[in-house]
Specification:
Elements (H helix, E strand, L loop, with lengths): L5 E2 L3 H6 L9 E8 L8 E8 L2 E6 L8 E4 L4 E4 L1 E3 L13 H4 L3 E6 L9 H9 L6 E4 L1 E2 H9 L8 H16 L5 E4 L10 H8 L8 E5 L10 H15 L2 E4 L12 H13 L5 E4 L4 E5 L7 H4 L3 H8 L2 H19 L5 E3 L4 E2 H8 L3 H12 L3 E5 L3 H9 L3 E3 L14 H16 L5 H8 L1 H7 L15 E4 L20 E6 L2 E5 L2 E2 L25 E8 L5 E8 L7 E7 L7 E12 L2 E9 L5 E9 L9 E8 L2 E9 L4 E2 L1
Parallel strand pairs: 2-5, 2-6, 7-8, 8-9, 10-11, 11-12, 12-13, 13-14, 14-19
Antiparallel strand pairs: 1-5, 2-3, 3-4, 6-20, 15-18, 16-17, 16-18, 20-21, 21-22, 22-23, 24-25, 24-32, 25-26, 26-27, 27-28, 28-29, 29-30, 30-31
């Protein structure tokens, strides 16, 4: 295999006798690009400057202080984990995520997390970040703050308080509303109450991602849980996302039916998506999904008090064993990573039944983590193959060693096991599901694709060797085959080793970033030439054929005291959805320099008067200006 090398600053330039300033900060040469769109791979070089992709093509003569030889390797967008449970103390290094190719993590999954998102991002970013971070606003956290841990109905005033907390989180840049209706106390919220609360997010055109509620009343049905998630999203005007999707327990073998119901919702006009990880077991607190909801009401102290009442203890044990059988196939479906024991082994030690053993563990050691086996390989394959399923590991940056193997192996496991070995999907589709699809699902516009003007979050991987090595017995074994990782133009992983460079940023969702389906497989066009407020003139006439690597056309903006003149010199990908379009590129500005730009025109921005569009422009990733435009002459298709 050909060696991979990086030429450090000065050496390559001086040896070549060049005195001029470098054209790029980093050039990746000779790689095979899989750009995240799902389009076929191609061979080209990539030039990076100031944290953005500035050129794609033959850059053999380009000058840069850092050169990466990617001959024989794939170059892909950085992977976006939209279901993260990262540990804050691991984010400055994030080695277990970088060795999986992850460059962005979205926190507060399953409805949890702080309610002051701005403060959370500031605190997490303070020690430096090896990867990008972002956050949801959590429904469960909002419910608990206002309604507590009791199974009681909120008053209209409390509903309004919860709506206000959701709205605040979105104003602070949340990438959607997350929920874990299978976890207490969110479990106690009725479907119509959830809809009333999250409906406040409708104008944001974002997503509702939910750990489906699996209840004894539904006979622990995954199908019923997915139906509820889709109904909440549809009725609240949000994109429903079935998070870490599965067909578990008694319903193994029904993934095709569940996916078909999601497709039906999409055809009805409620675009529905999912995420999944490539394992047949999950991880949660031992009691969270096994101890019945009524027994957990009021929190841990109230639960322990019920354990102490003989009649209640007997009922709890019976119902816990019923849940265990229906969801995880009985006690043989439970493994305790902290002590590296099967539950069945602990039962023998305690000379007790499954339910009694779990109650005793919860009484004496808190609520330890448990590996919970739930599904079938055939179901998992169907879920991974579905066109709207993003790869998301339900893991995050961590230094722990007794965890689920997904914390070290998820993305390389998809690529090595399911793509290279089993060939259940193409490399192009697997990369799309790890990058551009999750970006579109949560509303990102400048990541997830290799295109001019996109942020330079990139992975260089070896398709012949990439694979996971972590197991349930040795869950911290690192994956192999991820050779280099670039985060915002900075080399974070070099030849499989962390560099210590902290190129990550806290990413906030802003106006004009709707959750949406991908459109790379369709011909799309945007055309307008208009005068806006403050003397601004905009011309945007861009199209991209289905399957094309980049858009073509013209873009120019001039006029006004606070608006720089920009003339596009190259385009990236054109993205469109109802009344909205966005394109990235490279353009010349007032001082003659070339900068990365993104431009968005949005008819449905909630702050825009009827009959107007909002034009948003960024230069090198910094919001530069927003301009109101008359919408009558805009064509988007």
């Amino acid at each position: 295999m050909k060696a991979i090398w990086i030429a450090l600053a000065g050496l390559a330039v001086v040896a070549a006798g060049h005195a001029q300033a470098p054209l790029f900060d980093v050039v990746i040469r000779h790689g095979t690009i899989i750009d995240g769109s799902g389009n076929p791979r191609y061979n080209a070089d990539i030039g990076i400057r100031n944290g953005f992709i500035m050129a794609i093509g033959d850059l053999e003569n380009a000058v840069a202080p850092t050169l990466i030889d990617a001959a024989g390797l794939f170059v892909t967008p950085g992977f976006i984990n939209i279901h993260s449970h990262a540990s804050p103390d691991a984010l400055p290094t994030a080695l277990n995520m970088l060795t999986q190719g992850v460059t962005t993590e979205i926190f507060n999954a399953d409805g949890n997390g702080p309610l002051d998102l701005a403060q959370q991002m500031t605190t997490l970013a303070a020690p430096g970040l090896a990867v990008n971070i972002g956050g949801y606003i959590g429904f469960n956290a909002v419910w608990q703050r206002v309604n507590g841990n009791a199974d009681k109905r909120p008053t209209p005033g409390e509903i309004d308080q919860m709506r206000a907390l959701i709205a605040k989180g979105l104003e602070q840049g949340a990438w959607g509303v997350s929920a874990g209706l299978d976890y207490k106390p969110g479990y106690f919220a009725r479907t119509e109450e959830v809809i009333k609360i999250v409906d406040v997010a409708r104008p944001a055109r974002t997503n509702f991602t939910n750990h489906d509620r699996i209840t004894p009343e539904s006979n622990y049905s995954s199908k019923v849980g997915v139906t509820e998630t889709v109904a909440i999203g549809q009725k609240a005007g949000l994109v429903p996302v079935v998070t870490h999707m599965k067909a578990q327990g008694l319903e193994q073998g029904t993934a095709g039916e569940i996916l078909a119901s999601m497709d039906q919702a999409t055809r009805r006009g409620a675009y529905t998506a999912a995420d999944a990880y490539p394992y047949l077991a999950g991880q949660s607190g031992l009691g969270s999904l096994i101890i019945p909801g009524w027994a957990q009401e009021g929190g841990r102290d109230a639960m322990l008090a019920r354990f102490a009442v003989p009649a209640q203890r007997t009922r709890i044990i019976t119902e816990s064993e019923q849940a265990m059988t229906a969801r995880f196939g009985g006690p043989q479906g439970v493994y305790l990573p902290r002590t590296q024991q099967e539950l069945t082994a602990v039962m023998k030690e305690m000379n007790a039944g499954a339910g009694e053993t779990i109650v005793r563990i919860l009484e004496t050691t808190g609520d330890p983590g448990a590996i919970l086996r739930f599904g079938s390989e055939a179901d998992l394959v169907k879920i991974l193959q579905h066109p709207t399923t993003s790869m998301a590991c339900d893991c995050g940056a961590s230094t722990a060693t007794r965890v689920h193997p997904r914390f070290h192996g998820s993305y390389p496991r998809v690529l090595g096991r399911y793509v290279r070995e089993q060939q259940i999907m193409s490399w192009e589709d697997a990369i799309r599901k790890s990058s551009a699809l999750p970006a579109a699902t949560i509303g990102m516009i400048d990541r997830g694709l290799i295109a001019v003007g996109m942020a330079a979050d990139l992975v260089v991987l070896d398709p012949a060797t990439v694979i996971d090595r972590a197991t349930y017995e040795e869950p911290a074994l690192p994956s192999i085959g991820i050779r280099h990782v670039v985060v915002n133009g900075k080399i974070a992983l070099s030849d499989g080793a962390a560099t210590g460079v902290q190129g990550g940023r806290a990413l906030m969702r802003g106006a004009g970033m709707p959750s949406r389906p991908m459109t790379a497989g369709a011909h799309r066009v945007v055309a307008t030439s208009r005068a806006g407020v403050e003397g601004v003139t905009v011309t945007l006439n861009v199209s991209q054929r289905a399957g094309a690597r980049a858009a073509t056309g013209t873009f120019a903006i001039t006029g006004g005291d606070r608006v720089q003149t920009i003339t596009a010199t190259a385009f990236g990908h054109l993205q469109v959805t109802d009344g909205w379009t966005s394109v990235t590129g490279r353009g010349t500005v007032n001082d003659g320099s070339e900068r990365a730009f993104s431009v968005t025109i949005d008819r449905h921005d909630p702050s825009v008067p009827r009959g107007m569009d909002m034009l948003s422009v960024t230069l090198d990733g910094a919001r530069s200006w927003r301009v109101l435009l008359d919408s009558r002459s805009l064509i988007v298709q």
